[in-house]
Amino acid sequence: MVEAAKAYGAKFVLVGALTLFGGKQTDCKTLYYNFLEKYYPELIPKYKSLYGNSFQPSKEYQRRLEEKTVKICGRYGVNHKILA
Questions:
Q1: 34-45: average pLDDT
Q2: Domain spans of the chain?
């Protein structure tokens, strides 16, 4: 995706972890898990492990995501944040 963004003239990309709020029937976390249950039930244990009772993945996961983003953006000459 970063390579394609660069090809279309992107100067930067912003990468962040998915946030999943709520526990009510119409909240995004509930709706997302319902979608997974219907189409990708094998992913539910992974998401539950990653998110637990939080609305975001662990700080460690987010740190690793940032490291990967910096590396991939560097490969394609795209900034990984708005202000370089």
A1: 97
A2: 2-76
Q: What whole-number distance in Å separates Cα of residue 36 and Cα of residue 63?
A: 25
Q: Cα angle at 51 between 53 and 42, to 5 degrees?
A: 115
pTM higher than 0.70: yes
How far, in Å, CA of 20 to CA of 67, rounded? 22
Give the Cα-Cα-Cα angle 78, 80, 81 (nearest 5 degrees).
120
Ramachandran area for residue 50 (φ above 0: left; ψ -120 to 50: alpha; else beta): alpha
Which residues lie across from 12 on neighbouring strands?
79
Q: How far apart are CA 76 and CA 78, in angstroms?
A: 6
Confirm if 11 and 78 have CB atoms less than 8 A apart. yes
